Amino acid sequence: MLELDAYKGEIKPTWCPGCGDFAVLNATLKALQSLQIEPWNVLTVSGIGCSSNFPHFLSAYGFHGIHGRAIPVASGAKLANPALTVIATGGDGDGFGIGCGHFVHAMRRNLDLTYVVMDNQIYGLTTGQASPTSEMGMKTKSTPEGVIEEPINPIALALASGATFVSRGFSGDVKGLTEIMVAAIQHKGFSLVDVLSPCVTYNKDNTYEWFRARVYRLDKEGHDPADIRKAWDRAVEWPAFDSSKERIPTGIFYRKEGKPSYEDLEPALKAGPLTKQPLGLPADLQKKLLGDFY
Ligand code: SF4
Fold first, then answer.
1. What would the pLDDT profile of 99-125 be if each residue is shown by its tens digit?
2. Which of 46, 85, 237, 282 is the most buried (most CB within 10 A)?
């Protein structure tokens, strides 16, 4: 039986006290421990941003990459070794801005990845510029007179792009977020976990208090995640997308089981994981190419 400490990294998080990302880390550690997935079978991959420091804080394999490219790296790792539990992490700027093309294509391919977006509706690492999920009118360093663009709706985008698991968590509800994380990791196919993860330093609009006054849990209101039409109705439930709505749903919007993942269909993997297949290169060249990893 692996205890929670087995999943904690030696490096302590450097986030601002109160940052919502702490709750995401805790929920991820708890989810992995409750599923008893060995740390050496877990890979977390990130791009750039405050939340993208995530892989440093787990005792598991980790890759801290470049801006917006968590999904391509995670995809490559999963295709090379489908036995790995691969979790891509990052923020709304990284995933829904710079990396948005990768996000959409990974969903339509139904790669078996869990993608956790710590969505704080601002760029935190660069000290407070508008992000793709900042709401209209929000005043930031880059928009002193207010944002003039509509925000991206990650839940609706995921539904439209073919994701087979679409969810939203809240850092103010670690228990609910852990339940979502467990289900997302267990799901065979692409799982989005969009987490309302307040930036306490630079976003003074979307605070814990603001969310607590609005969030509710879908599972408490009889939502059926198998019904995509109902998922669409809930996806636009947010004051920024429909001014007649005051509440914000959290939980699993949509889950489709049984659809083959990209790895299931990829012909190159029919003979087994790439990591188990011979490279087909002379031994000396193989050794040279792999260098220190050999
Ligand atoms: Fe978290 Fe914001 Fe601080 Fe970054 S700047 S660590 S997002 S609170």
1. 999 999 999 999 999 999 999 999 999
2. 46
